[in-house]
Amino acid sequence: MITQTRSQKDHSVASDxxxxxxxxxxxxxxxxxxxxxxxxxxxxxxLPPEERILLSYERLRKLNERLLRGPHGPESLTQDPSRLTAxxxxxxxxxxxxxxxxxxxYNLVLGSLTNLEDSNGYxxxxxxxxxxxxxxxxxxxxxxxxxxxxxTTATWxxxxxxxxxxxxxxxxxxxxxxxxxxGGPKTALVAARLIVADEDEGVHLFLVxxxxxxxxxxLPGISIERLPQIxxxxxxxxxxxxxxxxLPYEAMVQSDRGRLTPEGLYSSTAGGALKRFHSSVQRVTxxxxxxxxxxxxxxxxxLTVAIRYAHIRHTSSGIGGGSVPLWHHRSHHAPLLEALATxxxxxxxxxxAVRSWEETTTAEERAAAERLVAITxxxxxxxxxxxxxxxRERCGAQGLFLANGIASQRAAGEGAVTAEGDNKVxxxxxxxxxxxGHFTGAKLSxxxxxxxxxxxxxxxxGDVARIWHDRAAERLRGKEKLPEExxxxxxxxxxxxxxxxxxxxxxxxxxxEAFAPFLAAQEMLRAAQQAINPxxxxxxxxxHRLFALRHLAAHTGDLVVEGRLTGSQxxxxxxxxxxxxxxxxxHGLLLANAQAVSExxxxxHPIMAADPDREAQPAxxxxxxxxxxxxxxxx
Length: 635
What we know:
Elements: H1 6-21, H2 26-36, H3 49-69, H4 74-78, H5 81-91, H6 96-114, H7 125-128, E1 133-137, E2 153-157, E3 162-166, E4 174-175, E5 186-196, E6 199-209, E7 222-226, E8 238-242, E9 245-248, E10 259-260, E11 266-267, H8 273-280, H9 283-312, E12 314-316, E13 323-325, H10 330-358, H11 363-394, H12 407-418, H13 423-438, H14 454-476, H15 499-530, H16 534-552, H17 556-561, H18 567-584, H19 588-593, H20 599-603, H21 618-624, E14 629-630, E15 633-634
Parallel strand pairs: 1-5, 2-5
Antiparallel strand pairs: 2-3, 3-9, 4-8, 5-6, 7-8, 10-11, 12-13, 14-15
Helix pairs in contact: 2-5, 3-6, 5-9, 6-9, 9-10, 9-11, 9-12, 10-11, 10-15, 10-16, 11-12, 11-13, 13-15, 14-15, 14-16, 15-16, 16-18
């Protein structure tokens, strides 16, 4: 009879968890990118900001060379959300600046052009070969989340048959894209209002060369001003304006959503101006998926660093002057286990959002997928920030060094919260849509719940979302329950004209805040139920239980009022959480290593070096705990 060692069993469990996390596509979609970014080319270098920007562009060209050598080129990448988002999951931990410029070039620019129903004569070869780097100029200094009202104009000149691109005032300056000549000459997709015969036909895209090929100097009429350095990964952010720049007829990006004949006749099948705008910037939905993918990659990387470090860094045991690993202390491993549960749940939710977006075939499905992507983008990027903060703190002073793969990525993550739609704004839209008939949660369940049963926990998470849905709906109908009126004018609630929508916003946001973890937990539970390895299933169910209980703990009052929890259950809920932590604590390393972070990249971080006061080789010891391979040696 052949028996497995503990290391072999752990390796089998970790392998099953990895396959679950990556939707069974780790070898096909993820391993190639992980291995590509594991080489020394992408390890951290101590450089001043300007040199780090140049390095990001050098790495972008190496990435493009890799794409050109592979079976699927850059154009194919832009049309495959699973491959595109997989790329973002692995670039985030190594170079957030590279992540910024590649998502603009491949997704927003090349993706927008390859999405067209016809090629319209565009020569994509300069973008594919990266002879020219693509930038996307939509947001203006005074028009961000209200971009449909942007002011840049492209006026059709029927005599010369050209467009005149113009920035009418300071507020219309294109704000923050990487439009300098750093990294090479660039071409922009510029969002501008099409003016034909004094009629505003709404926002369309125009292809505009920004720099001279030979000198890199801005072309006549184009002014590009570098903006101050931001926190996080440095990028050549700029403010760009146009002074009556003449563009050829071919510069307009034309499709059924907006066409102009050489004779100046305009037509569109996209409906009104707002629909035309959203059609022009449709790659923003793919961009939302890319933002959350990048954050997921950085959080999984940071968690692996923090948990490995917690096993090799020793501190006082608090009893008799002995020494123990940081992981020994509940105050240290509990928040990291909770962060692991969040990371796993977020990863499963992201996979669901990508599938939903890829599988849309009707306008109704597309609208539902866009709403789901907006919800997941906000939740994953916000929760990712919290996880990164926890990892940074648990690593102490070591977490502050850029070379250890946490601090710079944490700061760069702020951009993902704002990019491709500010989280709060897109959540307000999603929340109002849920209230207006698109909420898929069940009616409130009845009777007390079993906190040991995963299906019951899932029902409770759904109940929380339903409670906030009903509150928001009551607000929208003006039927919310207000405090009883008194004769005291100072305390009597007053309604302001037009205040119904304003009074609905906050519960609508609470609805989305509750609905997102319900969806995330649902996907994690589904993954657990589909796991073949019994131990992998048990660990996923434990993570689901920890994740669900932590979220429910903040809503016990509502659940007691609705009869879904008893007072006794509320009193013992934190004891129940402690039991789950007891169950998961011995498996923290295994769960972290199952995230499949590159060993070569991990070992490039100084924080992973051996403790000089201890003889063990920590990098090898912690790898052995999950049966992974280091330096060609398998454990």
